[in-house]
Amino acid sequence: MNPLNPLLWKALGVIAMIAVGIGLGYKATSAYYSPKVAALETQLKAANDRADSFEQSYNAVAAAAQKQNDELTKLVAQAAEREQQAKAAADKAKAESAGYQAQATSILQSQPPVGANECAAASAAFDAELKTERGKP
Fold it and tell me: Which sign does the torsion angle of CA 21, 23, 26, 30 carry?
């Protein structure tokens, strides 16, 4: 018998034991971690589904907010336009009322003749002004 022969058998035995140990370790590790990995994959899928749902909700809210902002911008523009129209109408009214103001001032400053009945003079002045406004001579 060759002296290397027993050494060869011992080496093959050690290699076989290592291989069996690796195989059993793989099997034990797989049995231990497989349920945990499956549970984590289920949780990950649920989290991804929730994230998709949140993203859809966010997109819906963002679209609604954008629409609201667009409508608000339109309302602001309409308010500015109405403000301009109101300012123009007020300026026109002031211009038209200037003549009436001057007329009213002249009427208020008019004095009845000395010794005349003030009520009768005021009534006559009022009647004359009313006839002038209505276009009757």
Answer: negative
- Residue 35, pLDDT > 80, answer yes
N-term to C-term CA, the chain: 157
Separation of alpha carbons 92 and 56, rounded Å: 54
CB 111 within 8 A of CB 93: no
The DSSP-derived string for 13-41 is HHHHHHHHHHHHHHHHHHHHHHHHHHHHH
> What's phi and psi for 2, nearest 5 deg?
-85, 140
pLDDT of 66-94, one tens digit each?
999 999 999 999 999 999 999 999 999 98
